């Protein structure tokens, strides 16, 4: 009777009891800890989806917000929305439960992770370049940074991310499930070469560009701020309008600078650890590092809410359903 009870208990701990030796074991957590963990992670995921959806609706709906900078923010919001909608729930399911969706879906999930993350990083690089031109070369901004060019760059960015993702997960796409050690798990193991290429292309290279551009922006912004203060007593109406425009550009640069700092804080732990251990996903810290990585997508819209008055106004119009009224897209949201 005792042996039967022990055998039954062991079967309950297996993802696929019928497979016995080749089945993975379930994650054993006390029910209270499991409920708390899943509740917190699900709340973060839902918040990420809702907040970024508000940004997508705001910029897409109101014509006054159809600027080059906001279109870039829209691209970033779309990637953050997909992180909350697909990647966060997938990681919760992958790390806290048995994987019952099969090897093909696991390979597709790995592809989406790389595609969405690479698209997000590309969008942040484009945002940095946009602010660099706006602050450092304001006279050429209108001619160099047009809406058509920005949309083209965004399309190329996501297309490039798609091709890069195929390279990154090529082995998993060719042979789904090749990395798993037992039935009931979804793992992704990469070679040393692939891990090194990812570290360079998805972290070192974009971070170097971002830091270089924002150092230039910071230097020019400080000099402009000093110039504005020194001439504040002798301005005409025309000059005051120009000064207000400059202040707006400087504020946008400051806000997006905070965006970059938060991005680095969330991405650095994962990629720093990948220097020590190429296959981060195979370590015990994997889920924690990945969720810190993904948490950036939840923080971005909170930064917009704190520093962009138009976003707070847009939220009020969306929540009160005023966006459904005729002509609401022409509202002076600014």
From TrEMBL:
Recorded topology in the membrane: Multi-pass membrane protein
Keyword Transmembrane helix attached: yes
Gene3D superfamilies: Rhodopsin 7-helix transmembrane proteins
Pfam families recorded: 7tm_1 (PF00001)
CDD domains, sorted: 7tmA_TAARs (cd15055)
GO cellular component: plasma membrane
Gene Ontology MF, one: trace-amine receptor activity
Keywords annotated in UniProt: Cell membrane, G-protein coupled receptor, Membrane, Receptor, Transducer, Transmembrane, Transmembrane helix
Domain (G-protein coupled receptors family 1 profile): residue spans on this chain: 51-304
Matching SUPFAM superfamilies: Family A G protein-coupled receptor-like
Organism superkingdom: Eukaryota
Location within or outside the cell: Cell membrane
Transmembrane segments: 35-59, 71-88, 108-129, 150-169, 199-222, 256-273, 285-307
Keyword Lyase attributed: no
PANTHER family cross-referenced by the UniProt entry: HISTAMINE RECEPTOR-RELATED G-PROTEIN COUPLED RECEPTOR (PTHR24249), TRACE AMINE ASSOCIATED RECEPTOR 19P-RELATED (PTHR24249:SF381)
Family, per entry: Belongs to the G-protein coupled receptor 1 family.
Full protein name: Trace amine-associated receptor 13c-like
UniProt organism field: Poecilia formosa
